[in-house]
Amino acid sequence: MMFNLSAGTIVLFLGAAIFQAVGVSVLPLTQGMTKPVPIVVTFVCYAVGIWCMGKLIASGIDLGVMVPIITLMVIGGAIVIGIFAYGETPSMMKLGLLAGATLLLTFATTA
Asked: How far apart (Å, rounded) are the C-alpha atoms in residues 50 and 67?
């Protein structure tokens, strides 16, 4: 196994992905970075997400493993938030590409 999946590691992975997905999802509320409260929420979310990633790296997680996994989690989270919070309709192509990227990542991290 490439890394230890302790409860703390899982929490940090989820924290990094969730905070970054929320940060990206709040961007429309900033109205072009003109609304102070959503801007602060966006920056705080990104800061917490990056802090979680820093803790993962310090714990020994390989950057080449961490970034792709968190990226896919953020993309998936942003799609879900877009659907439920903003009424977006995901295209089959977008969902198919995400599923394909997930499969490729699975194979790449086990090689």
From this structure: 11
